Please model this.
Amino acid sequence: MKQFLGFIGKIILVLLLSAFAFDFIYTFVFSQSNTRNKVEQVINSKNQNYDVIILGTSRANNHFVSELFEKKGLKTFNYGMSGAHLFETSLLLKLMIERGWKIKNILLEADLNLSNEKRDDGTFGRFMPFMHQSEIITQHFKKEPDFTELYFVPFYRYIQFDSKVGFRAFYKTLAQEPTNTLANKGYYPLGTNPKANMKNNIESLEPLRNRYFEEIKKICKSNGINLIAVTTPMCSKVKGMDYFKKVKKFYPEIKEYEHVVQGDEYFSSCGHLNDKGARLFTTIIINDLVLLKNEK
Model:
């Protein structure tokens, strides 16, 4: 019996030491990379200086063409992330501030993402390698129900979020395999999809007095950043468009652009503009921002 228990103890010890070793190796590799996704690019960056930072979900990532801002002399990067919720958007902004970034304007897509305060596991997973490197990350995640095991159990977070920071991502990061995530200054253009479903139903969505939107507002105010929050276009056949009226009641300061692009030929799907539509939309936004600037 003693031999059996000793054998089991040795197995547990080997597994524990292996977990610590793998945790250290994975963390070291991810901490050296800043070219594969927007999260690691921010975390591993030095202080930056931007005229315009774009934040939000895929409806920011696919809708705001950084190049068009740059042509107006505005240094710009699109940090919109597909699938992200305001939970991750707020954290990304906190990390920019923690790293001493100087930002004049935040252009924030604030529409459908106001309807929840949950994390998005796909985007959330990209922060996992850096949990022990930043008190900002630790505090942001601390109230999550699985924080204890993610933070204290070695290598558990890499197993739990294998699709984002597992072996495949580790290998590609180690091999410095390039991605297109940071191309086009963060803007990701979509093509025209003739088979796309140009109908959508958002009747079940209800905007919230969103905690993370409130955080973003406070961060911008305390750091002298001009926050421009906007809604973004939807295709013509959407049920529940009164959602945007509810958004306006909660947050009158959010500028309404959900109707400015007319014609489904400008959409790749009902909630996402194609490149042609994104360029039209971005031009409208830039012209409005110039008018606002002149008014000031």
